[in-house]
Specification:
The protein is of the alpha+beta class. The protein has three helices and seven strands; from the N terminus they run ααβββββββα. The longest helix is centred in the N-terminal third of the chain and has 14 residues, at about 5-20. The model has no long low-confidence stretch (mean pLDDT about 80).
């Protein structure tokens, strides 16, 4: 729906979520549509949406205004209510009503907007939060091999290596037994 303005796109996403059972192909219609006339009516907005006239609608009985999506737009104190217009199941337009608020100074193509919400059958507002696709599960990597500690040579072992000279290498030394030298303690903190 890249041809829709950010506001129109947010409203259509919520409308698809709300109207999915009644108009199952609404998302496909909006995605394949073309923009038409856009008009600020002074009391809201009107956006014509051009859908292929030969498209077979999934619900040909749906004709009229549908939906109850509301959006907080710009500096308006109250939300704008949006409905989609369907004719024989085909998406025709997006209507926005400002409930008497003056919208003449608003550029709906770039105005900031906030919360998008729907209204249920009891008249309760439900904040629309689109579901995001969960990331693919992380495949665990094999653990790296344990690090080997450096072997400490005793003075006698060092003497044997040095005594071997250039005649050859000393035989491998076995790992030391017993405790290794601990790290010195850090200095005490100043009081």
């Amino acid at each position: 729906m890249s041809h829709l303005t950010p506001l129109e796109s947010a409203v259509m996403d919520a409308m698809v979520w709300q109207m999915g059972d009644s108009v199952p192909d609404l998302a496909a219609q909006a995605a394949s549509s073309s923009p038409g006339l856009r008009r600020n009516t002074g009391a809201g907005l009107y956006s014509r949406i051009v859908v292929d006239a030969d498209r077979i609608a999934a619900n040909p009985d749906a004709t009229g205004l549908f939906g109850t999506v509301h959006v907080m737009v710009g500096d308006l104190p109250d939300p704008i209510g949006f409905q989609i217009e369907l004719r024989q199941g085909r998406l025709m337009a997006l209507h926005g009503q400002s409930y008497g608020q003056d919208t003449r100074a608003i550029d709906f193509s770039s105005t900031p907007f906030g919360e998008v919400f729907t209204v249920d059958a009891r008249g309760q507002s439900i904040l629309y939060r689109p579901a995001w696709r969960a990331p693919d599960p992380v495949v665990p990597r094999p653990r790296p091999a344990a690090r080997q500690t450096a072997q400490i040579q005793t003075p006698a072992q060092t003497k044997a290596v040095v005594g071997a000279g250039s005649a050859g290498l000393a035989p491998p030394t076995p790992p030391p037994t017993g405790l290794q030298t601990p790290l010195p303690r850090p200095p005490p903190r100043p009081a």
